[in-house]
Structures are given as structure tokens and as C-alpha cells.
Hints:
82 residues; mainly beta; 4-stranded mixed beta sheet; 1 helix; globular; binds zinc ion
Amino acid sequence: MSELTATLIIGRYQSTCSRCHRGTLMSTSHHTRELGYGVPAGKRGCGARFVDTATSDIGYTAKTLRELRPDLPVGDPLHRTH
Ligand SMILES: [Zn+2]
């Protein structure tokens, strides 16, 4: 069984999952919960495991990302669109 992995894209107001492009808590190891404006409470995320971080916020540097998630390596410092 292959594991789904994703980049945690940390934003100033909301963080998103690179796999499904939906909102997530910044502090979780996996995309367990979908967060966002208008998203019903308790909606599940895609379940991907976050393996590195990136940001969509030009004010956030690699250092900021390391401080926010010291457990994850900083990937591409720019927002990944794939
Ligand atoms: Zn996801």
C-alpha cells in the first residue's frame, strides 16, 4: 500500500495541502481535517502525510517555515502548483 504524501503549504491565514489544494491545520502530521471558509466542521482531509513545507506567502521565509514546523524540512520555498 503506497502512502500519500504532500507538501504542507503554510500561509499567514490558512495552510493548504499540496495534494488536494484544500485547507488544513498547520500543526498536524497528516491532512486529517479539511479547514476553510464554508467547510463543514469535521470534514475529513485527503489523509496525505506532510513530508515538507512550502509557503504561498511572500512574507514567509524558509527560516519562518523551519520555526513553524521544525519537524519538517523546507521544500521548494515557493508555492507549488502541480
Ligand atoms: Zn490533502
